Amino acid sequence: MNKIFYTLPLALACLSAQASTFQINSPDVPTGGKIPQSFAFNGFGCTGQNVSPALSWKNAPAGTKSFAITVHDPDAVTGGAGFWHWVVINIPSSSQKLAGGAGTADGAALPAGATHIPTDFGTPGWGGPCPPTGDKAHRYNFTVYALKVEKLELPATATASLAGFMINANALGKASFTSTYQR
């Protein structure tokens, strides 16, 4: 009887902690599923519309002062670096979503203060999936980071890798989901 008395509060505490886990999702891109064609890159032989999907997140850790979003393809044949498809930094802590289409190069649809870091396509904004024809399905990791700083001070010439380093150095927590794309 004493064992049940002590384990029940512990079990309830674990359920409560699980209910408030930092999460990210998308109404446009299915977790574990295939990324729709409209989000694919338009160039390099790919024929998508290169529109960024909507993303939302909830249950950020206490002390969050800003967010960052990354989309990375670890399967790209780049000598081990993978390929960065989207990096957004300095998203205000009051934000809990990015609207579909927010990934335009000019950043006009981003929350005030947020900014893009150039992707591995060499330009800022969303760069949709575009793996080589006939290659296996590539994984795309969508990640939101809760940061302990209001702003990451990065030079205008920052690379996605430098941004990733600074994001991870200031992260309080992160949430991710993975989807795939193949052509």
Provide a descriptive summary of the structure in words:
The chain has helices spanning 2-19, 160-169; strands spanning 23-25, 42-43, 46-47, 55-58, 66-73, 83-92, 97-98, 115-116, 138-147, 171-181. The chain has 183 residues and is an alpha+beta fold. It has one domain (22-181): Phosphatidylethanolamine-binding Protein. A hairpin with a 2-residue loop joins strand 2 (42-43) and strand 3. The model is unreliable at 4-18 (pLDDT under 50).
Mean pLDDT: 91
The succession of helices and strands, N to C, reads HEEEEEEEEEHE
User: Per DSSP, what share of the residues sits in E-state strands of 2 or more residues?
Assistant: 25-35%
Indicate the low-confidence ranges by residue numbers. 4-18
Count of DSSP strands = 10
Specify the biggest β-sheet.
Answer: 5 strands, antiparallel
Q: Please tell me what the overall shape is.
A: globular
Number of helices: 2
Distance between the termini: 59 Å
Number of domains: 1
CATH topology: Phosphatidylethanolamine-binding Protein
Helix content: 10-25%
Q: Please name the CATH architecture.
A: Alpha-Beta Complex
Q: From the helix content, strand content and strand pairing, which structural class follows?
A: alpha+beta
Question: What key phrases describe this protein's structure?
Answer:
single chain, 183 residues, alpha+beta, Phosphatidylethanolamine-binding Protein, five-stranded antiparallel β-sheet, three-stranded antiparallel β-sheet, 2 helices, globular
In short:
The protein is built from 2 helices and 10 strands. The protein has 183 residues and is α+β, with helices and mostly antiparallel strands. The protein has a single domain (22-181), classed as Alpha-Beta Complex (Phosphatidylethanolamine-binding Protein), CATH 3.90.280.10.
